[in-house]
Amino acid sequence: MSRRYKVSASLVFLLGASVAMAQQDAPLPVPDILKDLGLTERQINSKPIQRFLYNYRLRANPDGSFPEAPGVRVLPQIAAATAAATPFPYVLNSRWTQIGPQPITGGQIGNALTTRPMSGRVSALAVHPTNNNRWLVGTASGGVWETKDGGVNFVALTDAAPTMAVGAVAYAPSNPNIIYVGTGEATFSAVSFGGEGVLKSTDGGVNWKQLAVGTFIKGTAFAELRVDPSNPNILVAATSLGIFGRPTTRPPGFGARGLWRSTDGGVNWVRTLTSDGISIAPHPANFAQQLAGLGFGTDVTTALQRSADGGQTWATVPGPWTSLSGSTDRTEVVLAPSNPNRAYVAVSNSATAGMFGLWTTANVWDPVPTWTQISLALTDNGTGTLGPCAFDKAFNQASQQCWYNMTLTVKPTDENMLFFGGIPVWRYERLSNVWTEVSQTALPADRNNGIHVDQHASAWAGSRLIIGNDGGVWSTTTDGTGPWAVHNNTLATAQYYEGSVSPDTTVMLGGSQDNGSHKRTGSNAWPLVFGGDGAGNIASTNNNIGVSSQNQGVARSTNGGTTFVGVKGNYGGVPPFIGKMRECPSSPGTVVLNGSRVNRTTDFFGGPAGSLWSNGGFIFTPATPGSAIAFGNNCNTIGAAHENGEIRISTTGGLFPADFVERDVGNQVPNRPISSIAFDPNNNNGVCVGITGFTGGAPANLYCTANFTAAVPAWTNRSVPVDVSINAVVFDPVTSNRMYAGSDFGVWVSPDAGATWAHWGPGVGMPNVPVFDLVARGGKLVAFTHGRGAFMLSNFDINNDAAVNCSDVSIVKAAMGKKIGDVGFNVQADLNSDNVINIRDLSMITRQLPAGTSCP
Q1: What's the burial of 431, exposed, middle or buried (CB within 10 Å: 0-12/13-18/19+)?
Q2: What's the distance, CA 466 to chain centroid?
Q3: Cβ neighbours around 606 below 10 Å, total
Q4: Is residue 77 helix, strand or coil?
Q5: Dihedral sign computed on CA atoms, order 77, 675, 59, 156
Q6: What is the DSSP string of 268-298?
Q7: Could you give the CA distance from residue 825 to residue 815 in angstroms, rounded to a whole number?
Q8: Are 846 and 763 in contact (CB under 8 A)?
Q9: At 771, which helix (H) or strand (E)?
Q10: φ, ψ for residue 629 (rounded to 5)?
Q11: Cβ–Cβ < 8 Å for 126, 135
Q12: Which residue, of 21, 336, 497, 531, is most buried by count of CB atoms within 10 Å of its CB?
């Protein structure tokens, strides 16, 4: 029997209340999942929380609920659908090619732009136990990457895995060919996708097996994995909540959250503590002794746990937190490798999203350790209640997000040197009680020697400290006193929200999470052109481009992005956190923005910056921001949709509520968030909508009507055959009835207007990555992914002789075994864009050969 879990008991009331406020645009209601944490208005308005809400609203039902996660996992559903589908002739010889950014050049450090190369968010790090040049990097939704040359070159290991969301990675110390990956990212942020169990490789990352999917149900996210140094089959894990993508929230009694233990190599697990797990610190010489930090609303009195039997049982460690009141979202604990009796513990405060405090002890294994509090006042505004994770030194202001960015590590050779990664990275020298901001994000430091903000992971490779943050991977061999090395040049992990392509396809723009907006003009290195959270954008011509940041911070450039002018000006209504921009193809400069009102201009690039926009009042009930917007086949037809399922289309060019007629009069389309609107270029009255969220059963993610102007339009379920969120829908502008859909698992293609679908996945070069936007223009199709950058549809004809034959196979064979950076590596032979040429590439090309073909 299907069940539905409520996230917000008051959400329906709040939505209803805003209906009564018919005279003004309504602020977005705050779900109870945040209210229950006691967050202040300022915290709720912070960027990480607003990212959370943006994606929460795109995947929750209107009453705030999520369906129970289906028992069948997505990849088996895709495999079953593919097996049942009739092969599409044009799918043959179609291949996705990664086009960057690799890297994002001139990224933002502190408040300085155009600094250093960046990549997407890094969530986990691990160093090979016997080779300091070999690291694993887990990314937010771009999978696991490995380097064997100290961070110069990276290879993607898990593009074909069931999920690209990574929370923890670990080599087995006694057999490092065994690698474990905890899927799902426990940062509690926007698009912190939940996972699909545990991934395990026994051959150093070449092949992977998915384990424990029945235990770690959808929505579970891993925060930590630790493997017994003497037995690769014994491991412990800390898990918490993955918010979206494969969503579940925190309904009572539901759960794979807590502390876990496996003794058979990750196949079976026993939960040993039910509170959300954040960090685990085993004694380096005695795996039986372990410390664990708890979080995500855990009572602060139980924040730190201790085990004497390898994680089978736990008890609260006596300490200052036991006399505090409130809850914690993140408790990080770390042991000093040179003296495992020395521990440091950082405890966040759920109510303030700042800190309860930081403590250290030199006798952590004693029955009652002696704790000393370390003042954090020098790392924030002098109060000590914010600390490194809630105070942005570059901007000299509070930014309460200790629930999001916090990592601790101790120098292996010095128990008295602690590194606290929060927004920046701070070094603490205990004997002198000195704090130093070493990430060099703030003046007078040279930001060209620094690193990105928002730290999530740390590891040591000998004397090299490696840091993973929202801008990628960085390291220092000087304890942060000199320039940091940057390791992002070969990572392709940008998390795009929106993208656009110029009419001649020479310019592409992408708006990314926390890394601004980027521009491609041919090279796979995409320069940053605009800061903030990159959102909607338009590439009108090579010189005329428009970009936006969070909350519709809109800007235009008429010189290709050399300079920008802010044009938000008289924008009206409540903006979405991540907004959309659309330009009418037949009238360059005619642009619309979504929100609680539709804002439009007919002279985006030349009109007065302060008074550019026209709008006619809110159009949705409640009067909160819309989730999708698009032009029809003329500039007077504008479609706008809402996260509650409303679909409104104006055919007159009017912007008033009366102009935007509800087109789902019969309520045939599910009342779930509409992510995308696509008008049929061959039918002026045809339109399709993509839907996010889940049914828990039969797919209901894409609906179309052939006559939206009818009194009661007839909508048809044209869903892809898997219960996944559809984030983008687009018609092919040339081939009638061909449609494309971007999902949380790659791209789907239909030759018959959605009657049948085929999945374009790893077999044709597209990782199992969320695709947030699709653009078909100038004969090209570009996918903007949330975790693996951008991909362009190409073909398997490597040598451009108009045929896929044994000559193409020979090119792949000649480069077999080569990875990026090796002599003989041929990017043309890297068919799946993972930076290594192996059996996967050979399999891809041979499947494209005519039947019966055998190559030498």
Answers
A1: exposed
A2: 21
A3: 12
A4: helix
A5: positive
A6: S-EEEE-SPEEEEEEETTEEEEEEEEE-SSE
A7: 6
A8: no
A9: strand 771-777
A10: -155, 150
A11: yes
A12: 497
Q: DSSP for 7-70? A: S-SSHHHHHHHHHH-TTSPPPPPPPHHHHTTT--HHHHTSHHHHHHHHHHHHHS-TTSEEEPPP
Q: Which tens digit of pLDDT belongs to each residue from 284-333?
A: 999 999 999 999 999 999 999 999 999 999 999 999 999 999 999 999 99
> Which pair of tokens denotes residue 490?
């070969």
Largest CA distance in the chain: 77
Q: How far is CA 11 from the centre of its chain?
A: 25
- Among residues 551, 555, 552, which one has the least CA distance to residue 563? 555
- The span from the first CA to the last CA of the chain, in angstroms, equals 55
Give the pLDDT confidence of 358-411 residue by residue, as tens digits.
999 999 999 999 999 999 999 999 999 999 999 999 999 999 999 999 999 999
Residue 500: exposure state from Cβ atoms within 10 A (0-12, 13-18, ≥19): buried
Asked if residue 54 lies in contact with residue 497, where contact means CB atoms within 8 angstroms, the answer is no
Burial class (CB in 10 A: 0-12, 13-18, 19+), 89: exposed
pLDDT reading at 454 higher than 80: yes
Between helix 806-814 and helix 839-846 the angle, nearest 10°, is: 180
Distance CA 32, CA 65 (A): 11
More confident residue, 655 or 4: 655
Q: What's the CA gap between 430 and 446, in Å, rounded?
A: 26
Q: With cut-offs at 50, 70 and 90, classify the pLDDT of residue 17.
A: very low
Cβ atoms 222, 197 nearer than 8 A: no
Q: Is the dihedral of CA 156, 161, 165, 168 positive or negative?
A: negative
Give the Cα separation of 843 and 539 in Å (integer): 37
Token pair 């609203």 is at which residue? 57
For residues 512 and 533, what is the distance between their CA atoms, to the nearest angstrom?
Answer: 6
Distance CA 129, CA 362 (A): 26
Contact 784, 492 (CB under 8 A): no
SS3 307: strand
Write the DSSP assignment of 397-416 as a string of letters.
Answer: EE---TTTS-EEEE-TT-TT
**Cβ contact 746:766 at 8 Å:** yes
In angstroms, the CA 225 to CA 170 distance is 6
How far apart CA 606 and CA 415 sit, in angstroms, is 61
Q: Please report, for residues 230, 247, 579, the alpha-carbon distance to residue 694 in angstroms, rounded to integers and kept in the order given.
A: 43, 9, 23
Mind giving me the DSSP string for 101-130?
-SSEES--BTTB-S-S-B-S-EEEEEE-SS
Rounded CA separation 846/842 (Å) = 6
The answer to which of 388-392, 489-493, 692-696, 738-742 has the lowest mean pLDDT is: 692-696
- Judge whether 286 and 242 are in contact, CB under 8 Å: no
Smallest CA-to-CA distance from 450 within 404, 485, 495, 479 is with 485
**188: burial class by Cβ within 10 Å (0-12, 13-18, 19+)?**
buried
